[in-house]
Amino acid sequence: MVYCFLIFGLLAFDLLTKALADAFSVHVALIPRFLELNITYNRGAAFSWLSDKSWSQAFFIGLSAVICIAFVIALVKLPKTKRVAKLSFSFLLAGALGNMVDRIAFNYVRDFVDFPWFANCNFADFFITAGCILLFVHILFLDEDALFRKKKEDA
Questions:
Q1: 30: helix, strand or coil
Q2: Which is the catalytic residue, given 22, 111, 143, 154?
Q3: Which helix H or strand E contains 35, and what residues bound it?
Q4: Single pTM value for the model
Q5: Is 102 a catalytic residue?
Q6: Residues 49-61: pLDDT tens digits?
Q7: Is 14 a catalytic residue?
């Protein structure tokens, strides 16, 4: 139940910040040429990938739906002891849902956190990134079969 509250809290935060940035047509240089707030509308995926294709929105909505279903199944099936994995799937699900809601409602994703030297993104993208990092930490270090797990020495 905690993970449901986390998912909906993150989703609400993402949608609220996008709505505020959009409503105020935000264009502010917080740290000029490093971190700015600039609302843009991305019809593609990361770095506007496939934005020029007429079928891209349907493709991304379908892909997001399949991924969200997989994340929900993972959350339900994972044992309670795998907290970091459950946390990672919660962040991934919230991020995927946040961008999917935008695609369904507007036919594009609202991005407003602008790193002029890199990309323009939103909090859903940050949640997806955090979820990936947490999942890698789980897989590499925390899981019973982790690649770099410190083995308990025999007593």
A1: strand
A2: 111
A3: strand 35-42
A4: 0.88
A5: no
A6: 666 677 788 888 9
A7: no
